[in-house]
TrEMBL record:
Name listed for the protein in its UniProt record: Amine oxidase
Listed cofactors: Cu cation
Domain Copper amine oxidase N2-terminal: 2-53
Stretches that traverse the bilayer: none
Copper amine oxidase catalytic domain location: 221-629
Statement: the UniProt record of this protein carries the keyword Metal-binding: yes
Domain Copper amine oxidase N3-terminal span(s) in chain numbering: 70-169
One GO biological process term: response to antibiotic
Keyword RNA-binding: no
Species of origin: Amphiprion percula (Orange clownfish)
Cofactor binding summary note: Contains 1 topaquinone per subunit.
Annotated positions of the 2',4',5'-topaquinone modification: 381
Record's GO cellular component terms: plasma membrane
């Protein structure tokens, strides 16, 4: 269950005109398995909190949800464990000898576990999963043992599930029995992993190696000398001119609604839509891995945040509630945090030299920013989701990647698809792509979209006619239809992406606008139209601009993972009709991401520096001047008549003993020594 959003015009009538709020509704998804024709049905239930009615929710084009596309549940996993017990019992000796004493069942401290791979098959209507066994130690994701098995679990009777293939010692077998027979008779090369011991601690966080940092001294910490400067009321937040509402939907995660600056709406919705990680490899599990994370309930994987590590100790921590594959709501404590921080970088500054060893003035404004953060730990990977709100009307939307790499058993051929990161362990290359919906409403709902680039011009120099001037000139392209505003990966991408209101101008006669600025190294993960690529057709475009439709609320679905071949939500359908986007309510769909070729420094975990991507929303003639001028944290220093610096400030100088006991000091002179 999760909140079902009202139609946009209904919400705006209440937000902007004070009319009645639309009824609160729930989206409820039920699996009906125990019947002749099993199905998965979505309902819209209303009104909350005391529902009296429900209707069946349909998808664009009335596409039915195939039962085989359903996300996997705890009940199904229970049966998968049962068949793995049977498989591992048959291959007990092989597994025991390969791992140096590990087994899948009847084990104490030497247990095996598993990771399952998706999509579950090679075409629609299938439900068969490659599963690889791993040592169950801390960080088991990077402890593959080289045993992978393909289980067909399509039948609703788990007793009828079958093993279709087994992979061991770089060879394929048609059954566990065949593998065991050939193992016992010496017809297959035996794999022998190093004995369990210190060797297995490489995946832990336990410190090792030399450090000259004193261990009895804490590092720097963030403080709020007089308490927080932001306001949180349930899911509503205000900070320095900004206001917005947020939610974390169980399917796909963090969303911001009704984003305003000084009361003026900039965006109706900015929301995470999907995250994928498509892999390559030599083992069957590796070459099959194409993770589409909304299908794993990415939004419910919002686990507790640690003060001082995930968020500053001073942050406001918020509990989240999810209802997914459960009999009652589950509370995730401290799963979202909100805090203001200094970036230790000025927002603006200037030193105005007099070029004689002194200065005319110095002025600067510290850069503080409000951060809203949550995480998704989808099995091995940890995504850190951030929204950052700056004093100058800029919003940054960012994802940082951490957690364990998805690793498979090392084979020499595997080096074409990754890096050896430990004995018998290959870190497989993969591409992360993240999709966002950005429903901008710039000075109203009627917006247009243009791109801006530079072209060289060559003309006679007016003050030296025998010479020529070559310089850059602005080249603007107005995009009038959805197709022309869908930019493909691999094609030249414009440098300025400008959304503006054609009928609203700032003081200087420019149309009020915002632009999207990318921080991304993304590229497409499969050729267009190749099998699973149909389920992620949004990934063809770093940017696509469409007309807003209430029937086009999301670009993906929880069913895409297990049926990417015939997806129930196809983003390509949103731009296929090529509608007019001039002076319309526009939605920008943004894809960011990066290629990750694992390396030895990803052990034990991928680190966040260099692994953060996202985009900025930046005002472009929306204001008459920089709106951060409203901040009273500005400091100006001018030389006084007596030669001493005169400091002008609009906030108290005393910060607080926990920051510094030294008063503000500025000299401004420079001289030879």
């Amino acid at each position: 269950m999760e909140l079902h959003l009202p139609k946009k015009y209904e919400a705006l009538r209440a937000l902007d005109r004070g009319q009645a709020k639309p009824p609160r509704q729930a989206r409820v998804i039920i699996q009906f398995g125990n019947q002749t024709k099993p199905n998965i049905t979505e309902y819209i239930v209303s009104p909350l909190p005391s529902p009296k009615s429900h209707i069946v929710k349909t998808f664009k084009g009335e596409k039915p949800v195939q039962f085989d596309s359903r996300p996997i549940t705890a009940a199904e996993y229970g049966h998968i464990v049962d068949i793995l017990v049977k498989i591992s019992n048959k291959a007990h000796k092989l597994l025991f000898e390969t791992t140096g004493g590990f087994s899948f069942s009847n084990c104490s401290d030497r247990c095996l576990t598993f990771s399952d791979i998706a999509p579950r098959g090679l075409g629609p209507g299938e439900r068969r999963s490659w599963i690889m066994l791993q040592k169950f130690v801390e960080g088991y994701f990077i402890h593959p043992i080289g045993f992978e098995v393909l289980i067909n679990h399509q039948d609703l009777d788990p007793e009828k599930w079958t093993v279709e293939k087994v992979w061991y010692s770089s060879r394929y077998f048609d059954s566990v029995e065949e593998l065991v027979e050939k193992y016992e008779s010496g017809k297959v090369e035996k794999v022998k992993l190093p004995d369990h011991g210190d060797d297995d601690f490489f995946s832990t966080y336990i410190p090792r190696g030399y450090s000259n940092t004193p261990t009895n001294i804490h590092g720097p910490k963030l403080v709020e000398p007089q308490g927080p400067r932001y306001y949180v009321d349930h899911n509503f937040v205000e900070y320095a001119g900004w206001s917005f509402a947020y939610r974390v939907r169980s399917s796909a995660g963090l969303q911001v609604f009704d984003l305003r600056f000084n009361g003026e709406r900039i965006a109706y919705e900015i929301s995470l839509q999907e995250a994928i990680a498509f892999y390559a490899g030599d083992t069957p599990a590796a070459m099959q891995t194409k993770y589409i994370d909304a299908g794993w309930a990415m939004g419910t994987s919002t686990y507790e945040l640690a003060p001082g590590i995930d968020c500053p100790e001073i942050a406001t921590f918020v509990d989240l509630y999810h209802y997914f594959d459960t009999d009652k709501p589950v509370r995730y404590r401290n799963a979202l945090c909100i805090f203001e921080m200094t970036t230790a970088m000025p927002l603006r500054r200037h030193f105005n030299s007099n070029f004689q060893g002194g200065y005319n003035f110095f002025a600067g404004l510290e850069n503080t920013v409000l951060v809203m953060r949550t995480t998704s730990t989808v099995y091995n990977y940890d995504y850190i989701w951030d929204f950052l709100f700056y004093l100058n009307g800029v919003v940054e939307v960012k994802v940082s990647a951490s957690g364990y790499i998805h690793a498979t058993f090392f084979t020499p051929n595997g080096l074409h698809y990754g890096t050896k990161v430990y004995n018998y362990v290959l870190g497989n290359l993969h591409t992360h792509l993240i999709h966002y919906k950005v429903d901008l409403d710039i000075a109203g709902r009627e917006n247009s979209f243009e791109t801006m680039d530079l072209k060289f011009v060559n003309f006679t120099n007016p003050w030296s006619p025998k010479d020529f001037v070559v310089q850059s000139k602005l080249h603007r392209t107005e995009h009038k239809t959805e197709r022309s505003a869908a930019f493909r990966f691999g094609k030249k991408f414009p440098r300025y992406l400008h959304f503006y209101n054609p009928s609203e101008k700032n003081k200087w006669g420019h149309q009020k606008g915002y632009r999207i600025q990318f921080n991304s190294h993304a590229h497409s993960v499969l050729p267009r139209g190749w099998r699973e690529e149909n389920g992620i057709s949004w990934s063809r475009y770093p940017l696509a601009v469409t007309r807003h439709k209430d029937s086009e609320t999301t670009s993906s679905s929880i069913y895409a993972q297990n049926d990417p071949w015939e997806p129930v939500v196809s983003f390509e359908d949103y731009i296929r009709n090529n509608e007019d986007i001039v002076n319309q309510d526009l939605v920008a769909w943004v894809t960011v991401g990066f290629l990750h070729v694992p390396h030895s420094e990803d052990i034990p975990n991928t680190a966040t520096p260099g692994n953060a991507v996202g985009f900025f929303l930046r005002p472009f003639n929306f204001f008459d001047e920089d709106p951060s001028l409203a901040s009273r944290s500005t400091v100006i220093v001018r030389p006084g008549q007596d030669g001493k610096p005169k400091v002008q400030r609009w906030t108290p100088e005393v910060i607080g003993h926990c920051v510094t006991d030294k008063p503000f000091f500025y000299n401004g002179t420079y001289a030879g020594v």
